[in-house]
């Protein structure tokens, strides 16, 4: 892009793609904003009217909103904690020389390739089912009462399923980071008399700071919108116990057929995501600076 | 104290023997250089002494104590790596202090020692910088600082200057040699650069294909090479080898003469040949001479000689500085 001519040419060639992306983004956003100001119910689609910010007031003062917000944050935070706290030791193990390493790696990464609905169904019916599930069978073997996962600890059950899906991602990113760690540095630490634990704390953890940040940021983006796992297993219940913001918006739109209210909820979700992103970047973003 | 003795040290990786029966006596306070072509096992030998590799057989004694099976940190040695291997997330101070911190020294002692080491190496202004904010030469100094601060029995250097540019290399070479003399600590230094070996070493170990070919002072190796390999490896340009029969000495297999010991003689004196390339360096003139049956000879003449390709000249070797080798390549001394 040195000369003016190539600059103009470059821009001209980029324009269609940028324009398309822009339209792709701006049209749904504009329509959502538009719908959010209407009283618009699918049950009575003829009678729509402009109501201003009424939908926002209704959504934000709905007692379900605060519960859903809390559930969302608990879900995101717990899954992040589990995937990183388990992913780091797992990555360290996979970095060792063991027989059949490539097979083991494949097995560890496999859950990431299972689609959320399928894995949620597998967990619900084969593992966590209180009568015929594997966990119930193990519980009866050791003589305790099986846990009725989705009734007794519904949110925790969802967290388990989602964490199981995202653990491979964290492990994979951290494993590649470990493999890029300099061997001579570890040998230097060995000469300096550092134990395996000290080497981990003083060399490996700082080395992993950046990939951990990447894991946190990427996982957060996807975890804020977890839906399929909740829909398939608990349907947001019992009560509101597993309803997160994404699921709440879904119930507004397609259970209560209230398009206006759901649009307002969607915009609130965008704002929440931005607030979360703002704090995340403030807290961990500096790790990304070279 | 830092006397290091190798007794019958062997190392193999699977079926490949990297080190075959190394025996060596390194005196306390001496600067010993391991030199050899790449793949000769010099770095492996250093890593065996450091404890970063396990020996396959034999003993390594440090101050009379067998350290085979002793972990690296307990051997009392410190090492400077080729890539420097600085800890990127720590400041210069943190890097130098790390070994002392791991040894559990009190903070005040650590600070005092780190300051002293930094002062020795002119690193004081940089103590709070990160390695990536330093130049190559400064990083090199930090790596050395990390080694000296632990007051080891011996320093191990693994090609420490190979990542520096030529001018800095010459300067660091002198600094490292001076520092070693000042601290009077044993040093083992691995390099493939024979100029580094010749200029820094008290004694040189020439390695080839896992064997120690010769162990001696730089001038000893230059003047009395033990075999064809050492004769050819030490000295630049390389020693000329001519078949004994052709040169009129049928009792020896190979006759060696260094380029600087070939004089340009009068016509009819010595070996005739045709100049194929003449390199004029100002201070020296290198002549590559096609001498027929004797092969291609290199002559190094001090000063400027006005020869060009195609000129016919006569070269006469200095009879006192001829090296004679038998058919196994071992030197014949009379």
UniProtKB/TrEMBL annotation, chain A:
UniProt keyword Transmembrane present: yes
Swiss-Prot/TrEMBL keywords: Cell membrane, Membrane, Transmembrane, Transmembrane helix, Transport
SUPFAM superfamilies for the chain: MetI-like
Entry-linked CDD domains: TM_PBP2
GO CC entries: plasma membrane
Subcellular location(s) per record: Cell membrane
Example GO BP: transmembrane transport
Mode of membrane association: Multi-pass membrane protein
Record keyword Repeat present: no
One matching Pfam family: BPD_transp_1
TM regions (residue ranges): 12-35, 73-94, 106-123, 155-176, 239-257, 263-284
Residue stretches making up the ABC transmembrane type-1 domain: 69-280
Family: Belongs to the binding-protein-dependent transport system permease family.
Record's protein name: Sugar ABC transporter permease
TrEMBL record, chain B:
InterPro entries in the cross-refs: AAA+_ATPase, ABC_transporter-like_ATP-bd, ABC_transporter-like_CS, ABC_transpr_MalK-like, ABC_transpr_MalK/UgpC-like, Mo/tungstate-bd_C_term_dom, NA-bd_OB-fold, P-loop_NTPase
Membrane topology, record value: Peripheral membrane protein
SMART domains assigned: AAA (SM00382)
Domain ABC transporter residues, every copy: 4-234
Sorted UniProt keywords: ATP-binding, Nucleotide-binding, Transport
A single cellular component GO annotation: maltose transport complex
Cell compartment(s), UniProt: Cell inner membrane
Name of this chain's protein: Sugar ABC transporter ATP-binding protein
